[in-house]
Amino acid sequence: MSSKILIVGAAGQIGSELTTKLRSIYGKDNVIASDINYNNTELVNSGIFEIVDAKDYVSLKVCCEKYNIDTIYLMAAMLSATGEKYPMKAWDLNMESLFNVLNLAKAKFVNKIFWPSSIAVFGPTTPKENTPQYTIMEPNTVYGMTKQVGERWCQYYNEKYNVDVRSIRYPGIISWKTLPGGGTTDYAIDIYHKALAEGKYNCFLTEDTELPMMFMDDAIEATVSIMSANSDSIKIRSSYNLSAVSYTPKQVADSIKKHIPDFKISYTPDFRQDIANGWPKSIDDTEARNDWNWNHSFDLKLITNEMLKQLAKN
Ligand code: AKB
């Protein structure tokens, strides 16, 4: 029987587009999508779909055995803003799900794992400009703590148990197909929806809050690329810095105004401002570019063009 891929948390913002991409590469029947409900009907109806709770080791193991799964992409997580509202839930989901897939690999039920980390591993004491791969990491959000300690566990399982786990530190991911949920960088998607629907947007971050961002196509490309690279070239087994563009809410608003001249933006910072204040402004991803030839394609101008075009169509 040929080996197969399981995507856990496939109904989410990144999981849903990753499922489509992996199905186009490896074939529809070789990529099993899973989540905890049937809410994403497009995903449920477009290929094999299973209900799997990432926190439940047995249900993951049963699914892996049923389909002879070789590779797991663990995309289920509670993001930064929601994590601050439900700290213990965020800790439980983010850590238990990671241990479950690492232990499945340790027990040889699967061979390879993708687990996303985030720029949230950094904190207020981290150098903000061109943040290096190896630097001070004192995250001050629960989400960031789960990602930081998760990275340590990934490296530990790789070194002690030879688990082939690969990871990248995603910046804010900009996409038009599936909405994100509960992140601090979500404003950078919402702004396009509101620009088209209402011609105005009230941003929960200040106009000059610069954060690293990436268009979904680039994020998917990076994910596929690190997973298909030769194992020897993946020298970092905690998580790779990954970068594309960095911008502020004002810069997004200005790029939208080029298409919608009357677009108006206002700013009412809330608790998410504190989260953003602890994150880098820009990221140095030299290691990813050297080790597995990472390169991004979308800058802010291209992101805005694509977001407005696709959202207007849909
Ligand atoms: C969030 O804002 O929480 C996420 C992230 C940067 O990991 N988008």
Q: What fraction strand?
A: 15-25%
**Which spans of ≥5 residues are poorly predicted at pLDDT below 50?**
none
By oligomeric state, this entry counts as single chain
What number is the mean pLDDT? 97
What sequence of helices (H) and strands (E) makes up the elements? EHEHEHEHHEEHEEEHEEHEEHEHHH
Tell me the strand order in the biggest sheet.
3-2-1-4-5-7
Beta strand count: 14
The biggest sheet, with number of strands, parallel, antiparallel or mixed sense and barrel status, is: 6 strands, parallel
The CATH architecture of the domain at 173-213 and 244-281 and 297-313 would be Alpha-Beta Complex
Distance linking N and C termini: 40 Å
What's the alpha carbon Rg, rounded to whole Å?
A: 19 Å
Structure classification: alpha/beta
Q: Tell the overall outline.
A: globular
State the CATH topology of the domain at 173-213 and 244-281 and 297-313: UDP-galactose 4-epimerase, domain 1
Helix content: 40-55%
CATH class assignment of the domain at 173-213 and 244-281 and 297-313: Alpha Beta
Report the total helices.
12
Q: Which small-molecule species are bound to the chains here?
A: 2-amino-3-ketobutyric acid
